[in-house]
Amino acid sequence: MRFLVYIAAAIEIFGGVAIQWPRTARDGAFALGSIYLIFALLWVPRIVAEPLVFDPWGNFFEQFSLVAGALIVYAWSRGGSERPATAARLGYIFFGICVVSFTMEQLVYLSGTAAFVPKWIPPGQMFLGDSDHDCVGARGHRSTFRTFGPSSVSLALQRCSSASACWYGCLRLSPIHIK
Q1: Is the residue at 178 inside a domain?
Q2: Rounded distance between C-alpha atoms, residue 132 and residue 136, angstroms
Q3: Main-chain phi, psi angles of 83, to 5 degrees
Q4: Closest Cα to residue 117, out of 133, 101, 139, 141?
Q5: Which residues contact residue 81 at a Cβ distance below 8 angstroms, ignoring those fewer than 6 apart?
Q6: What is the distance between the alpha carbons of residues 133 and 125, in angstroms, rounded to a whole number?
Q7: Within 10 Å of residue 111's Cβ, how many Cβ atoms?
Q8: Whole-angstrom Cα distance, residue 80 to residue 103?
Q9: Residue 13: what pLDDT?
Q10: Is there a domain that residue 179 lies in?
């Protein structure tokens, strides 16, 4: 069983490295999309066994969002015909559905989400946890119902990276981490 973990890790490393350059981005996206599709499908038996429990659904959509991202990269790395644009659009729709799931997860587990926010950050944990799911939901709506091009995707990635860096900085400055 351990060798399967090593194989999955090697595929992820290969895909992550390959996706960095235009010449190999398509191969990297295919590798990453394939392995994350397998990971997503591993949640289907739990969904079938417990369809009213949200946890397996949320876990499925977390993995499937990575499949959607790989589909978008795969499509855009192919070039300028209508077929890649359709595949990319499908990836955007899949990702938008996943983000709706993320929003639902944050609503279901709002107190858990709020607990991740340090208490010292104004205006408070519950406000920031609640506003976070509003922003996630808005991003899901935009990616599902609007057509994006590469420049819009790049801008969205820059914004998400900036927000993540900001939150990471706030958490690292938290009194919990200062010793």
Answers
A1: no
A2: 6
A3: -60, -45
A4: 133
A5: none
A6: 13
A7: 10
A8: 33
A9: 93
A10: no
| pLDDT computed for residue 167 by the predictor | 55
Provide the domain count of the chain: 1
% the chain with pLDDT above 70: 64
Structural domain that includes position 168:
2-173
Q: Residue 137: inside a domain, yes or no?
A: yes
| Ranges of the chain whose pLDDT falls below 50 | 133-134, 137-138, 140-148, 150, 177-179
Please give the structure tokens belonging to residue 18: 């390959």
Q: Which H or E element spans position 115?
A: helix 110-115
DSSP string covering 57-99: HHHHHHHHHHHHHHHHHHHHTT-SSHHHHHHHHHHHHHHHHHH
Count CB-CB contacts under 10 A for residue 155.
11
Q: Which pair of tokens denotes residue 20? A: 């960095």
Tell me the C-alpha distance between 75 and 83, whole Å: 8
The pLDDT of residue 104 is 83
